[in-house]
TrEMBL record, chain A:
Domain ABC transmembrane type-1: 58-238
Protein name per its UniProtKB record: ABC transporter permease
Species of provenance: Actinomadura alba
Signal peptide: none
CDD domains membership: TM_PBP2 (cd06261)
SUPFAM superfamilies: MetI-like
Membrane topology field: Multi-pass membrane protein
Family indicated by similarity: Belongs to the binding-protein-dependent transport system permease family.
Automatic annotation (TrEMBL), chain B:
Protein name per UniProt: ABC transporter ATP-binding protein
PROSITE patterns recorded: ABC_TRANSPORTER_1 (PS00211), ABC_TRANSPORTER_2 (PS50893)
An example molecular function term from Gene Ontology annotations: ATP binding
Keyword list, A-Z: ATP-binding, Nucleotide-binding, Transport
Originating organism: Actinomadura alba
Domain ABC transporter: from-to ranges: 2-235
InterPro entries: AAA+_ATPase (IPR003593), ABC_transporter-like_ATP-bd (IPR003439), ABC_transporter-like_CS (IPR017871), ABC_transporter_ATP-bind (IPR050166), P-loop_NTPase (IPR027417)
Keyword Signal on entry: no
Pfam families in the cross-refs: ABC_tran
């Protein structure tokens, strides 16, 4: 088992290592201004991000992202549940939701600057504006897709509405909620960078643009690499959490490793609610 | 005592539309085991949903122990046909069974005791921490039955609970149900389209004709305890089955 894992891990590393080596060898003698030697990039990266600028640029960026994302999750799930459960609310709000979701969030950066200034709140606003909709719409679909019979069961046992919401509707919708959250996480990182590039005094996006403007190309690349690593880390954490929370869902769909599955037969339960990634 | 009189159900707003249930009258005594037999589409599921208070009847009256049933009553439990859709896959077996108890005002200790007892009665002790999807279909339906038992109902409504199980599992669960029915002192109202199942289980069989009307009310005087082999070998069993079969044959197929 561990040997298999090691082999798998090695297989994952082959392509990145080869690419890095190739770029490293080529860039070492290329003397191209736009593509500085890899060693130089790594050196500058270490200078900047171990740990000089962590407090001044990385932390503010991450906090903006997390704040915006948290607001979107809470708001998206709340409104998604409300709209999913009420036909009237759903019909009445649909045009506005569709409009806002179709609106490219960066288009409102100038407005955000006017109203919120160049501080954190304008960035958080932009992030919320772009990440709320996938979560809201997926939650809405998830809530509508709850098995009728589970709700009948709850009614026949006289389970109160709040408990139905907490123990049936939300869990049943959770695969879709997570699908929306996954889409939104990617959008959130993009909007974090974009909003920091337009009007900002710090943040990774600001740092990348600033480095380019002062012709510090290795530092610019360092910022780009940091953004990639940040995205990787966040999605890694996300997948961990999702796997844990949605273990039942993978089990019910027969997607768990055999050792966890044991004697199971009919597994049509949650198919209907299987996550489909919604485009933003 | 469950009394149903002149029950009628029409879906939709149009009172002239074809009724799903048309004028159903019958009563079930306490601790009686009554099977409602009918071919598919004859309105038997609609009837059970009305009786459970899940959907309102258009007209007529349902009295449970003298009180009209307008919403799901406290001492009634419902076992659905599709166990995989009525169990909650995100809860363990024990949580599924104890889930309704918390809202019935049962204390935590009592709920736990009732859960263990019910799971034991259906032969699932030791599976408390499993999830429904880790169990076979027959075991999942046992969990659903255990959930109903733990709720301590006076009347158990069952909507073709064994229809989607294989024959052997169905026989096992039929015997399990008869055993439980005796031990827990409940009234059972059991819907099925399987004539043998109805005759084997019931004290009385009501044959439903589409649109649901009680076409026949047959006492099943077969001796108890019943046995899958011996009971089904009795000449009376064959006689009753033939009688019910011809009653069902006579009505037009409603599909």
């Amino acid at each position: 088992m561990t040997l298999r894992r090691l082999t798998l891990f090695a297989q994952h590393l082959v392509v990145p290592v080869v690419l890095l080596l190739a770029f490293g060898l080529w860039s070492a003698q290329a003397e191209d201004f736009f593509f500085p030697p890899l060693t130089e990039i790594v050196r500058v990266f270490a200078d900047n991000w171990l740990f000089d600028r962590v407090g001044s640029d990385l932390v503010p960026s991450v906090l903006r992202l997390l704040a915006g994302y948290a607001i979107s999750v809470v708001g998206g799930v709340t409104f998604g549940v409300l709209f999913g459960m009420s036909r009237i609310l759903r019909t009445a709000t649909d045009p506005v939701v569709q409009f806002l979701r179709a609106l490219p969030a960066p288009a409102l950066i100038p407005f955000a600057m006017l109203v919120f200034g160049t501080g954190n709140s304008s960035k958080v606003f932009i992030i919320v504006l772009g990440t709320m909709w996938p979560i809201l719409l997926n939650t809405l679909d998830g809530v509508r897709g709850v098995e009728e019979q589970q709700l009948d069961m709850a009614r026949s046992y006289r389970i109160p509405m709040t408990a139905r919401l907490a123990h049936i509707i939300l869990p049943a919708a959770s695969p879709r909620i997570f699908a929306g959250m996954r889409t939104s996480l990617g959008i959130g990182i993009i909007l974090m960078v974009v909003s920091e590039m337009v009007a900002s005094r710090n943040g990774i996006g600001y740092f990348v643009l600033q480095s380019q403007r002062s012709f510090e190309i290795p530092a610019m690349w360092g910022g780009v690499i940091l953004l990639g690593l940040l995205g990787l880390t966040l999605s890694w954490i996300f997948v961990r959490v999702e796997n844990r929370v949605l273990r039942w869902h993978r089990g019910a769909n027969g997607l768990l490793p055999e050792s966890d599955q044991s004697s199971k037969k009919a597994g049509s339960t949650a198919r209907k609610n299987a996550p489909e990634v919604n485009d933003a | 005592m469950l009394e149903v009189s002149r029950l009628r159900k029409v879906y939709g707003a149009d009172p002239q539309a074809a009724p799903a249930i048309d004028d159903v009258t019958f009563s079930v005594a306490d601790r009686e085991f009554v099977c409602i037999l009918g071919s598919s589409g004859c309105g038997k599921s609609t009837l059970l949903r009305c009786l459970s208070g899940l959907i309102p009847a258009t007209s007529g009256e349902i009295l449970l122990h003298g009180d009209p049933v307008l919403a799901p009553p406290k001492d009634m439990a419902f076992v659905f046909q599709d166990y995989s859709r009525s169990l909650l896959p995100w809860m363990t077996v024990a949580r599924n069974v104890s889930f309704p108890l918390r809202y019935k005002g049962v204390s935590k200790e009592d709920a736990q005791k009732a859960t263990e007892e019910a799971l034991e009665a259906v032969g699932l002790s030791g599976r408390q921490k499993r999830y429904p999807w880790q169990l076979s279909g027959g075991m999942q339906q046992r969990v659903a039955i255990a959930r109903a038992l733990a709720y301590r109902p006076k009347i158990l409504l069952m909507d073709e609970p064994f229809a989607s199980l294989d024959a052997q599992t169905r026989f096992d669960l039929e015997d399990l149900l008869l055993d439980i029915w005796r031990r827990f002192d409940v009234t059972v109202l059991f819907i099925t389209h399987d004539i043998d199942e109805a005759v084997y289980l019931a004290d009385r069989v009501l044959v439903l004709e589409a649109p649901a009307k009680v076409a026949l009310d047959v006492d099943i005087p077969l001796p108890r305890p019943r046995d899958q082999l011996k009971t089904k070998q009795l000449p009376e069993f064959a006689e009753l089955r033939t009688r019910l079969f011809s009653a069902i044959q006579r009505e037009p197929a409603a599909l």
